[in-house]
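Worked example 2:
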Amino acid sequence: MAQPEAMLPTRVHAVNLARVRRERMLPAPGTVHVRLGQEVGPDSLIAEGERPGSVHVVELAPTLGLDRSQVEAALLVQPGEAVTVNQPLAARKRLLRRREVLAPVAGQVLAIDEHGRLLIASTPGPVKIAAGTPGRVVNIMPRFGAVVESNGAFFQGIWGSGGESFGVLRVLVGEPDTMLQPEHIDIAVRGTIVVGGATITREGLEAARAAQVRGLILGAMPYGLVDLVRTLPFPVILTEGFGSIPIAMPLFEGLAAVDGREAMLDGRYQARWGRRLPELFVPLGQPGQPLRELGPLAEAQQVRLAAPPLLGRIGYIVRLDAGRRSTESGLPLAGCEVELDSGEVVFVPYSNLEQLG
């Protein structure tokens, strides 16, 4: 039988009602303004201090679709110049459309390197950390912040970009396999967190920027749009991966159930040195159960397939230890048998599974 550690795939939470604890922390020591056990609202001040300056790298060449040698002619700023948040740094006009790259932070332009990237030193300044969601303070980290416990719907993606954002959740497509088109995005979604479908185009992302949405949730998107997404002034999270992949039906149904509610979207993603997944949290009034910790797989457990050709499909484990079998890579891997929603039973290596729940 396979070793227990081989049965510990990544857990991706998708819970319609859960009790969630979230750290609300300053980037450097400051002053904490809450006490243990205190009830807080979304705008309650947890802590405040000074944000240290740092260097930000802004990709210009791929975002504008230019060769590195062409970037300098597209610059709207020069080294040594001060810039503000969302100030245009470079632009390219094609036919009737103008494409711009905006400053992600306020600071000073340091240089443009040989790869067509602009370096900006952000300006140190005051920072305030709010609770973000209604809840109760369950732990205090002196001089840095607190842990806030809240009840609500909690969903994680597998890739993200950007920081935190708050707004009303708006599901713009009727089916999870629908492409989010520019015509779906108009002035009515300004200030909202938008849920799309299987993928999006460059034009769709630009329409979301123009509409001033506060966040975007998709099943997938072409990998070539990553550089553009990183210049957007709002967070983006992908629930399935890159390409065109429908949002998993249980997740899509969970998002549809909280359509129209206030939500908090956190696009921060870290693949190394302590994995961090992007997430969406929707506060709800009723109490939930604590999120379950990652544990060994079990029969009848719901899982998501995390590798082609069945990437994104949902199923249930029907045979936990199915031995080792040859895979498309040619390697014999240990795995289990999973029954898909179609009724088909397939062999899946443990490394290609994600636990749901």
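The domain at 55-123 is CATH 2.40.50 (OB fold (Dihydrolipoamide Acetyltransferase, E2P)). The CA atoms of residues 157 and 239 lie 4 Å apart.
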